[in-house]
Design brief:
The complex is a heterodimer. By secondary structure, chain A is an all-alpha fold. In chain A, 64% of the residues lie in helices and 0% in strands. Chain A has a domain of 155 residues. Chain B is built from ten helices and no strands. In chain B, helix 9 packs across helix 10. Classes of the chains: A mainly alpha, B mainly alpha.
Chain lengths: 227, 232
C-alpha cells in the first residue's frame, strides 16, 4: 500500500517554524561522567565474559548431567549447537550497527526476535527423541524452567546494565532480542545440566525462557536501555 | 508511485505555488537545511570525537547540533520554551549515550532519535496528558513562534501568515506518530529510510504516517482557500 503513496506533494506544505538560523538558546548542559566508546566496548566484553563464566560455572559447580561423559560427542554438540545458533542470531539483532548506527530496521529486529525461538523449537522437535517419562512431564519441566530462569536472568541483568542508555532507536525490540539471546544461552547451558533428552521437555522446560526473556527484555527496553 | 524523498522533499523546494491554494505565500526552502548540509560532516566528526572521549568536541557538537535539535523539537512541540527545555534534556542524553555512537555513523539521525525519545517521555507524562486533553495537545492556538516571511508585503504577508498558522495548528492536532514522521521527512530533510530508523518503524509505516499528515494539512489549507466570489 505504501508503495503507491506519492510524497512529492509534501514540499507544498510550508514550514511554520522555518527560521534562517535558530541559535542555541542556553548555556551548555552540565557535564556528568559518561562512558566513552572505548569504555562501553570494554564493559561489553567484560559482561560477555562474566555471562559465559556464570553459565560455565553453573555446569561446573552447581549442576551437571550425570551421563555427560558417556554421551556421544555429536549428541552433546547438537544440544549446544541449536540454542547457541539461536542465541547468536538474536544477539546479532542487539549488536548490529545498521547502516547509520541506529541498529537494523525494525522488521529485521522483529524477525530476529521471533526466528531464534522458532528455530529452537523446530530443530529440537526434529532431532530429539520423544519424551519417555510422560507421567512427570510438568514436574520436570517446571523445575527446569526455574533453573533456566536463573540462567537467563543473570546474563540479562548484565546485558541491561551494559546497554544502559545505549539504544537510541527501537530499544524495546533490541532489548527483547537481548532477552531472547540470554534465554537461548541458558537453554544451551541446560543441555549440559539436565539429563532429560525428551524433545517436548527441552522445548518447554529449557526453551520457554527464550520467550519470557524476550518479554522481560521488551519491558526493560523502555526503562533502562533507551537513550 | 513513490519518489525518493531525500532528493525531492528534504532539499530546498523549488519556488512553486501551492497546487491546491491560491494563497501566494511561497513554500520557502528550509534555510537551516542548506547550512546544515554543509556542516553535516563536521557534526558527524565532532560527535565521533566526542564519543571517543574528546570532551572539547562538545562545544562544536553543541554549536552545530543545537539549532537543528531545537528546530526539530520546536516543530514537534510547537512551544519555543518547551523546545528549549527538551533540547537541554536531549543534549544531556546525548552526553550520557555518547559511547554508543558508532564510528562512521551519521550524527543527526542519531541525535534526532534521542530528541524524539525526550519528547515522547514528556508527552507521556501524566500531567502533560491531562493538559493535552484540555488544550488539544497544547499547541493549537498558541502564538506563532515567528512572523511571516519578511520578504513579503501587505496582503500577501497576511495570507502567508494565515497559511503558516493553519499549518502550525493542523500539525498540533495531528497524532504524534504522524506529526513526527511528517516533520522528519518534510522539514528535517531525512529520507524515508532514515526517518524509519529514527522512529524505530518500518519504511512503509513512515510513508503512510507522513502521507496522512500531508493529506490532513492539504485538507486544512484547502478549506482556507478562498472560493470565487468569496468576499475575502
Amino acid at each position: 500500500m505504501s508503495d503507491d503513496l506519492d510524497l512529492q506533494g509534501l514540499r507544498q506544505i510550508p514550514d511554520p517554524f522555518a527560521p534562517s538560523a535558530l541559535p542555541p538558546s542556553r548555556e551548555l548542559p552540565p557535564r556528568a561522567p559518561s562512558p566513552t566508546r572505548a569504555e562501553r566496548t570494554r564493559r561489553r566484553v567484560l559482561a560477555a565474559i562474566a555471562a559465559v563464566s556464570f553459565e560455565v560455572g553453573w555446569v561446573v559447580l552447581v549442576e551437571r548431567r550425570r551421563d555427560l561423559g558417556s554421551l556421544p560427542a555429536w549428541s552433546v554438540a547438537l544440544g549446544l549447537l541449536i540454542p547457541l545458533a539461536a542465541a547468536a542470531l538474536a544477539f546479532r539483532a542487539v549488536s548490529s550497527k545498521g547502516r547509520r548506527g541506529l541498529g537494523v530496521p525494525t522488521s529485521w529486529l522483529a524477525a530476529l526476535c521471533t526466528f531464534p525461538p522458532a528455530l529452537f523449537v523446530v530443530a529440537t522437535l526434529a532431532t530429539r527423541p520423544p519424551d519417555a517419562d510422560a507421567g512427570h512431564f510438568w514436574d520436570l519441566a517446571v523445575r527446569c524452567m526455574g533453573v533456566t530462569s536463573v540462567l537467563t536472568a543473570v546474563p540479562l541483568a548484565l546485558g541491561a546494565g551494559v546497554f544502559r542508555h545505549a539504544f537510541v532507536a527501537a530499544s524495546t525490540w533490541r532489548t527483547a532480542a537481548l532477552g531472547v539471546a540470554c534465554g537461548a544461552l541458558a537453554a544451551a547451558t541446560m543441555s549440559l545440566a539436565c539429563w532429560h533428552d525428551g524433545a517436548l521437555h527441552i522445548v518447554v522446560g529449557h526453551g520457554t525462557m527464550m520467550m519470557v526473556g524476550g518479554a522481560a527484555g521488551a519491558l526493560l527496553g523502555r526503562r533502562i536501555t533507551r537513550a | 508511485m513513490w519518489v525518493g524523498v531525500r532528493e525531492s522533499v528534504g532539499r530546498p523546494a523549488p519556488a512553486s505555488p501551492m497546487a491546491t491554494s491560491t494563497l501566494k505565500a511561497k513554500p520557502r526552502p528550509a534555510a537551516h537545511t542548506l547550512a546544515s548540509v554543509e556542516g553535516t560532516e563536521q557534526l558527524d566528526a565532532a560527535m565521533d570525537r566526542y564519543a571517543r572521549g574528546e570532551d572539547a568536541a562538545f562545544q562544536e557538537l553543541y554549536r552545530r547540533g543545537a539549532p537543528r535539535l531545537r528546530g526539530f523539537l520546536l516543530r514537534l512541540s510547537g512551544d519555543a520554551a518547551l523546545a528549549d527545555d527538551l533540547a537541554q534534556e536531549a543534549f544531556l542524553r546525548v552526553h550520557r549515550a555518547r559511547g554508543s555512537f558508532e564510528a562512521g555513523a551519521a550524527a543527526l539521525p542519531w541525535i534526532f532519535a534521542i530528541a524524539r525519545n525526550v519528547f515522547l517521555d514528556h508527552a507521556r507524562h501524566p500531567h502533560v496528558r491531562r493538559a493535552a486533553g484540555d488544550a488539544h495537545a497544547g499547541l493549537a492556538g498558541a502564538p506563532p513562534e515567528r512572523e511571516a516571511p519578511r520578504d513579503t508585503q501587505g496582503d500577501e504577508a497576511l495570507m502567508g501568515s494565515e497559511m503558516l498558522a493553519i499549518v502550525r495548528d493542523t500539525l498540533a492536532r495531528l497524532p504524534v506518530l504522524q506529526r513526527e514522521a511528517f516533520i522528519l521527512v518534510r522539514f528535517e530533510g531525512l529520507s524515508v529510510h532514515e526517518a524509519a530508523e529514527v522512529l524505530g518503524a518500518s519504511e512503509g509505516a513512515v510513508k503512510i504516517r507522513a502521507f496522512r499528515a500531508y493529506e490532513a494539512l492539504r485538507a486544512a489549507l484547502g478549506q482556507a482557500d478562498p472560493k470565487p466570489g468569496d468576499p475575502r
